[in-house]
Amino acid sequence: MMKRGRFNLIGRLQLQPEKFREEEAESIVKLRILRTQEAIMKIMKMRKTTTYNALHLELTHVLKE
C-alpha cells in the first residue's frame, strides 16, 4: 500500500499573484512616467520658457486633472 504524499500548494499559488503584482506595478510606474512627460511637453509648448517652480506648480495642476 502506498503512503499519501503531502504537497504544499499554498507556496506555489502565492508566487503567481506576486509576480503579477510586480508586473502590474512596473506597468503603472511606466504609465506615470509617460503621463508626466506628456504633461511637461504640453506645458513647455504653451509657455516656451518657465522657472522650475512654475513648471512644478503647473505640472501638479495638470496631473491632478
Describe it for me?
There is one protein chain. This protein has a domain at 22-64. Helix content is 80%, strand content 0%. It is mainly alpha-helical. The radius of gyration is 24 Å and the shape is rod-shaped. The longest helix has 39 residues, at 9-47.
Question: Characteristics of this structure?
Answer:
65 residues, mainly alpha, rod-shaped
Distance between the termini: 69 Å
Shape: rod-shaped
Order of helices and strands: HH
The helix/strand class is mainly alpha
* Biggest sheet details: none
Mean pLDDT metric:
82
Contiguous helical run count: 2
Residue share in helix: over 70%
The number of distinct β-strands equals 0
Strand content: under 5%
Radius of gyration, whole Å: 24 Å
Low-confidence stretches: none
> What is the oligomeric state here?
single chain
Give a brief rundown of this model.
InterPro entries: WH-like_DNA-bd_sf, WH_DNA-bd_sf. With 65 residues, the chain is mainly alpha-helical. 80% of the residues lie in helices and 0% in strands.
Task: Give the topology.
Blueprint: H1 9-47, H2 52-64
